[in-house]
Amino acid sequence: MAKSTIHLGIEAGESALKFALLDVKAKKVLRTEVVHLEKSPLSSSAFFENAVTEWMSAHSLPKPACINVALPAYRGTIRDVTLPADADDVHDYLRWELCAALGVSSPDDFYFDYELQPDSRKPVRAIVAAFRRSLLDVFRGIHKKDLQPAVVEPDLFSLLNLYEMADGLASELRCVIKADRAGILAAWGNDSGIVALRWCATTGLGVDPDSEIFPRLAESLAQSIADSGSSYKDAFKAIRICGELSTETGFTDLLAQQLKIHGFELSLWDSFLKLSLNAEGNFPRNVLHCCGAIGVALRAAGDRK
Q: Could you tell me the strand order of the sheet in which 6-12 lies?
């Protein structure tokens, strides 16, 4: 029997699961959906397992060859580390850097992952992500073997993978914004990897009216991107946006106006050059919310350490 080419990507949000079912051989997104829950999907193994099982059963979906999970970067720590030329063991050096950044004597309480830049053969930098191991204990406690994730990674790495696999990365710099209500991440990258990162807090969302928060947030984010991207401004003009806030026109319209002042153009990341979208089960809103899930679904078992 032919091996299944169906992958399921899941991004675990604050109180939601964002699903993306892909046929990786056909390069087709079969279905995307956001399921809102009464509590964090990572509150327990049983809760996560039941939520995934119920979603798959509700749609009579084919059994995926693998399930991959993306964790929001704001749930952990992200660092851009320059590697010394005399570092004999990159892995050990990054563990030491991680301890220094977190102020701990041992990294044993943390799971850490990294992307070497520009490649693993001659790395000069590394983007390091760390999450408390207790967060990943949820996945270790899953009883059904076919629901245990083959890959768990930060959504930042999933987004870069999506850009590379679905749109193609070249020497030209690209910028993508993942704007969620819990926080906003902006990343610049090209075929050599992630070049720069910026994080923008969303303090006030859910407390003050959006009509009051959105103008301040759009202006602050646009200024941060303009300042951060000043060294690369001539290298890129177009910026793609995804995430929960990307479907809030009251926010994206204001952000587009503010970015235009600085010479940038904003567009929605709701379509891809190298991935097709199944007409049934994919709505622009779902696709925009599920870019992290799509990116991690494109991973194969063994892609990550």
A: 151-154, 66-71, 6-12, 16-23, 28-36, 276-277
Give me the CATH number covering residue 247.
Answer: 3.30.420.40
Q: Identify whether 14 is part of a domain.
A: no
What tokens does 127 get?
């983007």
Unique residue bearing structure tokens 């099982």: 53
Ramachandran angles phi, psi of 264, nearest 5°: -110, 155
Q: Are residues 260 and 180 in the same domain?
A: yes
The dihedrals phi and psi of 301, each to the nearest 5 degrees, come to: -55, 130
92: number of Cβ within 10 Å: 10
Q: Euclidean distance between the first and final Cα of the chain, in Å?
A: 29
Task: Say if residue 63 is exposed, middle or buried (CB neighbours under 10 Å; 0-12, 13-18, 19+).
Answer: exposed
Q: Does residue 154 fall inside a structural domain?
A: no
Q: Which amino acid is at 23?
A: D
Residues with Cβ within 8 Å of 92's Cβ and at least 6 positions away in sequence, in order, are none
Summarised one tens digit per residue, pLDDT across range 127-167 is: 888 888 888 889 988 988 889 999 999 999 999 899 889 88
Inform me whether the pLDDT recorded for 189 exceeds 60: yes
278: tokens are: 């199944």
**pLDDT by residue (tens digit) across 22-75?**
999 999 999 999 999 999 998 899 999 999 999 999 988 888 999 999 998 888
